[in-house]
Amino acid sequence: MNRKLISILLKLVVIFAFAGFILVGIGPVRWFAASIIRTEPQLADKELFAVLYVNAGFIPVYISLVLAWLVFDAIGSDRGFSYVNAKRLDIAAIMAIVDIVMVIIANMIFNSWNIGGPPTIMCTMGLTFLGLAAAIVCFSLARLVSEAARLKQEVDLTI
Question: What is the DSSP secondary-structure string of 41-95?
Answer without folding.
Answer: GGGGGGHHHHHHHHHHTTHHHHHHHHHHHHHHHHHHTT--SSHHHHHHHHHHHHH
